[in-house]
Amino acid sequence: MKKIFRPTFLIAALLASALFLSGCQALSPQQRAALGTSVGAVAGALVGSQLGDGSGRTVAMALGAAIGGYVGNQFADYLNQQEQQSLALSTKKALRANEGRSGSIEWASDQRSNVAGEIHFGQPVSVDDGRASQTLAAARGDDLTAQEKAQMASLSTGTQCRATRTSLSVEDRDVADGAIWCRTAKGDYMPLNMMAA
């Protein structure tokens, strides 16, 4: 039987999330980031649930949640859902296409002409390397938190991680943030917090 995509529930959930977030201006930046992560992860899982069947659907949901969680945390106040997913996918593609070397790529929104910037990525470093935290912090532009260091310590020996620093101009406002991505056993990259979950 051919699967038919029914977006009604998804659209309703995303609209409800957007309305909920718009009423949260009294929250601190950390609270908004955590809320954005949660909403982004749920929205990403909902999108992923519409793709594939059986185990393929489970993988799509997990990937959607990971991407949604990453971008929800980093740029929830600035980018819409499609822009967030585009940015996350572009980051993952850049990391896979540039194994072993640092560099940057340009990124631009497909929805708004005044939303664009660059994704900078550092070289991969093994979590076993005694200077891994310093290397990742230098590439990302800020120190790793105690939680991030603990998450790295929980990863398998030999796991490679890299830092990214994304700088965007969003409607004449400059925003930037960094993240740590780690290589999975299948050769893909996932945000550190999703790898350590």
From TrEMBL:
Keyword Iron: no
First and last residue of the signal peptide: 1-26
Listed InterPro entries: Bact_OM_lipoprot/Surf_antigen (IPR051407), Gly_zipper_2TM_dom (IPR008816)
Organism: Halomonas pelophila
Membrane as UniProt keyword: yes
Entry-linked PANTHER family: OUTER MEMBRANE LIPOPROTEIN, PTHR35603
Localization of this protein: Membrane
Keywords, sorted A to Z: Membrane, Signal
Pfam families registered for this protein in UniProt: Rick_17kDa_Anti
Chief location: membrane
Ranges where the Glycine zipper 2TM domain occurs: 35-74
Name of the protein described by the UniProt record: Glycine zipper 2TM domain-containing protein
Domain of life assignment: Bacteria
